[in-house]
Amino acid sequence: AQSVTQPDIHITVSEGASLELRCNYSYGATPYLFWYVQSPGQGLQLLLKYFSGDTLVQGIKGFEAEFKRSQSSFNLRKPSVHWSDAAEYFCAVGARAGGTSYGKLTFGQGTILTVHP
Amino acid sequence: EADIYQTPRYLVIGTGKKITLECSQTMGHDKMYWYQQDPGMELHLIHYSYGVNSTEKGDLSSESTVSRIRTEHFPLTLESARPSHTSQYLCASSPKVGDVSYEQYFGPGTRLTVT
Q1: How far B43 CA sits from the closest chain A CA (Å)?
Q2: Rounded to an integer, what distance in angstroms lies between the CA atom of residue A47 and that of residue A106?
Q3: Tens digit of each residue's pLDDT (9 = 90 or more) over B36-83
Q4: With an 8 Å Cβ cutoff, is A110 touching chain B?
Q5: CA nearest A90 in B: which residue?
């Protein structure tokens, strides 16, 4: 079964500082990988996704993530954080075609990002 | 981007009441999902559907039930609400079965409080 670990429950950064949120996954093959962002009281918004090809993927709002197969990681980065980036961030893994997990996503526990002015 | 709607956004209800949480999407997506999320916690899949008349239980056991009579509509029902059902319920949809691009699009959620 697939699983996702986000080691950092809460991260605090200053506005303008760089950001890296960690995500490690467990899956028997190359998975589909996603990062979502959730503002308080809202649903989840897709930031970016990795299916295949270039291991560095660009997303919305200036975010990027790098898939590293050797480390089973898919860390999210942003070079300069804005106060509006304060939210909770979820990494998710999806199984490729076939099997009972097809089409379903498994989410990590989330990382809460606080941005100081 | 998918348009997916959930009503009500907030619901406070007494123990023993029957409730239905509504979810609709306008993108013609075949796949739809219900997640339960407690504050500050990850999402747990409780129901999913791959098309009309198709419903399956998710990874987290739930006393709720779902139906899928129309492609765009995926309501969740609790026959007798209890305080343990207090949570946020998120609905999501994604493109058709067999489509390689199956990222999920989420509604705004329904925050349910059972007193």
Answers
A1: 6
A2: 16
A3: 999 878 899 999 998 899 999 988 888 999 999 999 999 999 999 999
A4: yes
A5: B42
| Long-range contacts of residues B96-102, Cβ cutoff 8 Å, at least 24 apart | B96/B29, B96/B30, B96/B31, B97/A103, B97/B30, B97/B31, B97/B50, B97/B51, B98/A97, B100/A51, B100/A97, B101/A51, B102/A32, B102/A94, B102/A103, B102/B31
Q: Which of A1-5, A68-72, B4-8, B93-97 shows the lowest per-residue confidence on average (mean pLDDT)?
A: B93-97
| CA distances to A96, A102, B13, B86 from B80, in Å | 37, 32, 11, 12
Q: Spell out which residues of chain A touch residue B41, defining contact as CB-CB under 8 Å.
A: 109-110
* Residue B97: pLDDT band with limits 50, 70, 90: low
